[in-house]
Amino acid sequence: MHTSRPLWADSPRIGLRTRKTPSRSDYDVIIVGAGISGALMAHALADGKRRVLVVDRRQPVHGSTLASTAMIQHEIDIPLHSLAGMIGREKASRAWRRSAAAVEHLTHLVADLGIACGFERKKTLFLAGDAYGSRALRMETEARLAAGIRAEMLSAATLADRFAIDRTGAILSDISASANPAQMAAGILRAAAARGAEIVTPLEITDLRPTADGVVLATADGGILAAGHTIFCSGYEFLEAVADRNHAIVSTWALATPPATPLPGWLNDCIVWEGADPYLYLRRSRDGRLIAGGEDEASEDAYASPQKLKAKTRTIRRKVEALLGIALPEPDHVWAAPFGTTRTGLPLIGRVPGLDHVFAVMGFGGNGITFSQIAAEIVSAEIAGHGDADADLFAFASRTS
């Protein structure tokens, strides 16, 4: 067993050619973070004219991207009908539609770039649970349909007949996907580099200072870099000047079984999550592994506990076996990681209050890849000067409010 080693760490084709030092001291855009968020941001901004630098204190794609279970969902952690009660129906509907559109954009991007990352379109099965029962799922189905998002409510009998699952109901939808996140991020970074982006690792940014027309960054090796704009795409890790009070760190756990694990045939086409707290999520990989995760805990350091890794992954395995009615083999990978989240389940994307030339993206919850695409679209539009119609949905609140 690979204890606390994500499955994707052993993936082929995730190495990249990088520079050890920047080729210059000033850039149009500096992106901090070389995971999936930084990759998509670099690809959106590298146009052959802008001087774009991507830096990371680790190897590219070896941060939080490796910990992803890569369930590329259009569903946001907070169901649409619940989110509508928090921010209003119109805004909630826009957020969900934007998330669905992001999955479509990612599908086309991977195909257009020819990235070999096991990308597959999937249906999603959202199961009734202790937090959202069949009545809530009926409300959710109606909310999605009213927002123009396809969804099918399944009764307990239909769910049992089609999936052999004993729950009071489920929602079946068809706007999701899965992939190898490390290969996906590496492929997008290569495409960005081909369009002129420069990638430097390892290089750590330790401080920043705004200027009249940009920002100056200090590096751990004593260097100074200047940029017209800086974008922090650093997962859950941020400088104090960029951190936000509405962003919380949560711990999560995951496992993967060996290839060719005997699994129900319908898992070839569906990814699964449930309306429970904590919720379980699972999918089948292209080589026949069962990848599952959950047992999230509101702690920024619980993920580091070896005892919790053992106990949490045992619980996840037991829950999957009970749900699917099968016995699973011993996992050959188990891992844990922290991730950022917000009360509404919506990410924070945009200019950092008080720092006009500094952008940050954070709080991606269980939708890291999907929200990374949205972030790339919004921030690149802001830098281009024409803005984005949905930027208000994800903007940082003023620090004086």
Description:
The protein is an alpha/beta fold and 401 residues long. 29% of the residues lie in helices and 27% in strands. A hairpin with a 2-residue loop joins strand 17 and strand 18 (355-362). Helix 1 (36-45) packs parallel to helix 6, helix 1 (36-45) runs parallel beside helix 8 and helix 3 (89-113) crosses helix 8 (368-384). The longest helix is centred in the first third of the chain and has 25 residues, at 89-113. It is globular, with a radius of gyration of 21 Å. The termini are far apart.
List the helices and strands and how they pair.
Blueprint: E1 2-3, E2 26-32, H1 36-45, E3 52-55, E4 71-72, H2 80-87, H3 89-113, E5 120-127, H4 134-146, E6 152-155, H5 156-163, E7 169-178, H6 181-194, E8 198-200, E9 205-211, E10 214-219, E11 224-232, E12 248-256, E13 270-274, E14 281-284, E15 290-297, H7 306-324, E16 333-341, E17 348-352, E18 355-362, H8 368-384, H9 391-394
Parallel strand pairs: 1-16, 2-3, 2-11, 3-8, 5-13, 11-18
Antiparallel strand pairs: 4-7, 5-7, 6-7, 9-10, 10-11, 12-15, 12-16, 13-14, 14-15, 17-18
Give a nutshell description of this structure.
The chain is an alpha/beta fold. The chain is 29% helix and 27% strand.
Features:
401 residues, alpha/beta, FAD/NAD(P)-binding domain, D-Amino Acid Oxidase, Chain A, domain 2, 2 domains, ten-stranded mixed β-sheet, 9 helices, 18 strands
- CATH architecture label name of the largest domain: 3-Layer(bba) Sandwich
Average pLDDT reading: 94
Alpha carbon gap, first and last residue: 49 Å
Strand residues, percent: 25-35%
Q: What general outline do the C-alpha atoms trace?
A: globular
CATH topology of the largest domain: FAD/NAD(P)-binding domain
Number of domains: 2
What's the alpha carbon Rg, rounded to whole Å? 21 Å
- Characterize the largest beta sheet: strand count, sense, and whether it forms a barrel: 10 strands, mixed
Outline the low-pLDDT stretches. none
Annotation, overall tally of beta strands: 18
Query: Quick one: CATH class of the largest domain?
Result: Alpha Beta
What is the H level of CATH, i.e. the homologous superfamily of the largest domain? FAD/NAD(P)-binding domain
Q: Count the helices. How many?
A: 9
Q: Please write the string of helix (H) and strand (E) elements.
A: EEHEEHHEHEHEHEEEEEEEEHEEEHH
Q: What structural class results from the helix and strand content?
A: alpha/beta
Helix content: 25-40%
